[in-house]
């Protein structure tokens, strides 16, 4: 994977969170839409939802319809934990939405490269190409053709409920792993609370947890690790940093870092725990901080990077364009859909999306002043470029990330070992 920018990945979800945003014109099973009864062109849009607050996709769809009389956008809000499977099934059946939320690269079921190679996506125009973050071309393009339109930049790490943390006696986020374990034990000893919340039964969240920890254990040392794996210069099983990443999860479990029953918890445990303050920190994309602030007024949330092993190790993170839009190659409403994508590419809409999502704009990242924002704790990492894109965007197929997520679940229950998890990831990569 390449350095620089963006995720979710996805909301409390590449990573976490329950379901459903209300949709303006909600179609339960998606499908492309035809022209409306008055002859004006309309189209459908599918996207993943997490918390119950209004999605940025819905916000902008409303704005577009208001600015374009006669156009109706059928919004298909799909629960985050089933989005990849749902969209893949719809593409196979030929009834996918005209426009879908996609993910750069090939490491997820809705990955741009995966879908484009399968013939499901339509090439986009220059306005989409201009938005590709520098160095991320391989995540959006095949043979010079662009198949996804980047929307904003997400930092993937930890979201801290600063209000709840202060109440629990945690005045600052730990700076090394020893501090993590100490804070975990301190919070657990207070009774009824945990330092971290984990949706252990949800592969996307367990995968995000391991990926966030791997930022300092693997990618800080070798930012081009994904390319090295592609070139067969290394393996998961042969990389000490990946072993250390998974050992850290076991150590956190043993130190009481996660909430009781974490191994069987779903996405709802994250939003419930982090908004009520019974858990202080979640793993996920930075946009979740804005979602949580809306859902739990009175709490302050900050974006944090998972600490390195020791205080002398380099602070490092994950930041990339994990949110994008793509056009269904079989759409019967391509002209109408392309007009919407061109509108979304304009600076005003890019800023609106980033602001609504609580993420960073897709351009001009190095010039941002993040002091006084919830990104202040990771400002130095972002400004110095000490990050790579979310790991799985550069992995060859979604099975590798699935193996990571499932493997972490097995570590939580004691049903698998570090060596077997890494072996399964190598096998998935080479399949």
UniProtKB/TrEMBL annotation:
Residues 1-23 form the signal peptide. SUPFAM superfamilies: Periplasmic binding protein-like II (SSF53850). It holds the Pfam family SBP_bac_1. Keywords: Signal. It comes from the Bacteria. This is Sugar ABC transporter substrate-binding protein. It comes from Subtercola boreus.
């Amino acid at each position: 994977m390449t350095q620089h920018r963006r995720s979710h990945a996805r909301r409390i979800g590449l990573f976490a969170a329950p379901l459903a945003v209300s949709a303006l014109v909600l179609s339960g099973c998606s499908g492309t839409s035809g022209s409306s009864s008055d002859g004006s062109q309309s189209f459908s849009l599918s996207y993943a939802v997490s918390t119950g607050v209004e999605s940025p996709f819905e916000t902008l769809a409303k704005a577009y319809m208001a600015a374009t009389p006669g156009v109706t956008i059928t919004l298909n809000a799909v629960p985050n934990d089933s989005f990849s499977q749902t969209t893949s099934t719809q593409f196979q059946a030929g009834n996918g939405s005209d426009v879908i939320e996609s993910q750069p690269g090939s490491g997820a079921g809705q990955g741009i490269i995966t879908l484009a190679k399968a013939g499901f996506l339509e090439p986009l125009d220059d306005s989409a190409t201009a938005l590709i973050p520098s160095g991320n071309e391989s995540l959006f393009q095949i043979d010079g053709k662009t198949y996804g339109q980047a929307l904003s930049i997400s930092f993937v790490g930890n979201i801290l409920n600063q209000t709840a943390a202060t109440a629990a006696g945690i005045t600052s986020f730990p700076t090394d792993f020893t501090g993590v374990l100490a804070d975990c034990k301190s919070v657990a000893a207070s009774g009824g609370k945990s330092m971290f919340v984990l949706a252990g039964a949800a592969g996307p969240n367990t995968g995000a947890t391991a990926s966030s920890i791997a930022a300092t254990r693997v990618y800080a040392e070798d930012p081009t690790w994904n390319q090295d794996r592609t070139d067969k210069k290394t393996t998961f099983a042969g990389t000490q940093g990946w072993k250390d990443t998974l050992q850290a999860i076991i150590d956190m479990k043993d130190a009481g870092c996660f909430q009781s029953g974490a191994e069987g918890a779903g996405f709802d445990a994250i939003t419930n725990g982090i908004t009520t303050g019974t858990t202080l920190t979640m793993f996920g994309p930075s946009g979740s901080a804005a979602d949580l602030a809306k859902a739990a007024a009175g709490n302050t949330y900050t974006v944090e990077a998972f600490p390195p092993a020791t205080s002398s190790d380099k602070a490092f993170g994950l930041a990339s364009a994990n949110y994008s839009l793509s056009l269904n190659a079989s759409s019967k409403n391509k002209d109408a859909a392309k007009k919407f994508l061109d509108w979304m590419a304009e600076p005003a809409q890019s800023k609106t999306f980033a602001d609504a999502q609580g993420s960073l704009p897709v351009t001009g990242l190095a010039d941002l002043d993040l002091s006084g924002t919830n990104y202040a704790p990771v400002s130095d990492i972002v400004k110095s470029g000490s990050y790579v894109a979310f790991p799985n965007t550069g992995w060859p197929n979604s099975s590798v990330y699935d193996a990571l997520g499932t493997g972490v679940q097995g570590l939580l229950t004691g049903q698998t070992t570090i060596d077997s998890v890494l072996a399964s990831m190598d096998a998935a990569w080479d399949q």
